[in-house]
Structure formats: structure tokens, C-alpha cells
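Let's sit down with a protein and look at its sequence and fold side by side. We need material for that, and I hope you will provide a protein of your own picking. Once you have written the record down, we can walk along the chain together.

***
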Amino acid sequence: MSESKKILVAEDSSVIINLTKNVLMFENYQITSVKNGKQVLEKLNKEDFDLILMDINMPTMDGIECTKAIRKITDPKKSEIPVIAITGNYKNYTLDDFKQAGLNDYLQKPLDYDLLLSTVKKHLNK
């Protein structure tokens, strides 16, 4: 069997982290979670991930700012990682805003876990 994919979940809500972990671990993904964008960059510095689920509204460093920082990393494997935004106030942003920040896709809260799974699979199987 192929090696399981590693997903980094950046989300400040423990409830969403736990639900997301349960859904994705059922598909055999390895899940690591952090609470803000600064921690995302610290984790990326130490290890590789196949995909990042990024909450937009987080303390310390938000998802847009963090994604822009990821896209500036010199290592192409890390700078080109698919990043999917998770947001409750997507109306404050357009898809164009997300694309300009370097986000590959977005999911709105409350999360539809079937859509979450299909979106994750879409970006991991490219």
C-alpha cells in the first residue's frame, strides 16, 4: 500500500480540528494540527506535508498572511504545497482574493465533511 499522505490542519477551533481529524484519519491520512499561522511555518520548517487545510481567521498570523509566507519559501516542494482555505466569513473575500494569496481552494464553515474529503482527495491526487 502507498505511504499515507500528511496533512497539516491549521485551525484555532478544537472542535473543528477533532472532527476534521476523525474524517481524514478514516481515509488513512496522517494529521498534524496547529492553532495559528506562525505554528504552520514552524512545522513546515521541520517536516514535509502533502496538503494544508488553513483556517483564514486565526490568532497570531491569519491564513492569508501565512499562505503568502508559504509561497515565498525557497524550497519548491514546500512553497507549492496545496493550501485549502477554511473560512466562516468567505463573504469578506472573493475567490480572487484567495487565489492572489496563493490558496488553491476553499471550504466554507460549517464544514461539509463529504466536500472536505472530496476537496482534499482532488488536490492530493493531482
